Please model this.
Amino acid sequence: MKAYVFLTTKPGTSEEVIRHLREVSKVKGVKSVDSVYGRFDAIVTVDAPGLEEIGELVYKVIEKIPNVTRSETALVLSRKDQ
Model:
C-alpha cells in the first residue's frame, strides 16, 4: 500500500525536518522525501504492506520528529504497477 504524507513544520525548520527524514528514509517504508512550496512544507512517500504499518510509520516515526506540527495522509487507491 502506498501513501503520501503531507507535513507542516514550525516556521523556519522545514529543511531541518527534511534532513532528519532523509536520514530516517533508511527506515523500512519511507521511499522519498521532498521539500515543497505551498500549503505543506514536505511530502513523504511511504510504501508498506498495509494500513496498520502505514499508521505505525506515521504516528510512531514521522509525527515524532521534532518541529513537525501537523501531518495529513493520502492513501493511493490504485497503482499502474499492480
Summary: The radius of gyration is 12 Å. The longest strand covers residues 2-9.
